[in-house]
Amino acid sequence: MKYLTVTYLPLQEPVPVLGEFLQLYSVRNPGAAFSLGSEVTWIFTIALAVVAGVIIWKAFGLRSRLWAVVLGCLLGGVLGNLGDRLFRDPGFPVGHVVDMISMPWMMPAIFNVADIFIVTGMISVALLVVFGLRFDGTRERDHVTVETEEQAEAVAVAEAEQRAAESQSAETADDAPAGGAAPTAGGR
Fold first, then answer.
1. What are the catalytic residues (predicted)?
2. Is residue 115 flagged as an active site residue?
3. pTM above 0.70?
4. Residues 64/136, Cβ–Cβ less than 8 Å
């Protein structure tokens, strides 16, 4: 989308898509939202690089598909804007981000698809945390809070016993004959 914007969209001229509801408006943003902090763009570059690194590092321990999708969207948005900061004019690491989407009826900001992914990704992260979904796919309510080492050992023993019992019942169910009827002597 940024390539198409830079190649075909006139700079700082509104192009109506749906009238005043949605317009394309190509600008180069030197700062963050609403061009704030344009004199310290290098700080945004460092922050984006750190966020991308943390997401990639956390991805190795993910067991939840929902977390994977959310963090993937967030990473895509971060990398989209980080690429602009690193490789666009006026140069490394203070490049201006290409923005092109304008919705004047809603807000005066002009943003890009990467910004949409970042905002929705952060909202989704907050919701996943509030609802207690962990990276391993379990929920917060599935975990027991312990305060002492003795409690932790007792919980670990109880969980091991529960897993053993579940394994034993699964093996017993696998050994049962199909159809639910037990075999009788003499075939009757």
1. 99, 115
2. yes
3. yes
4. yes
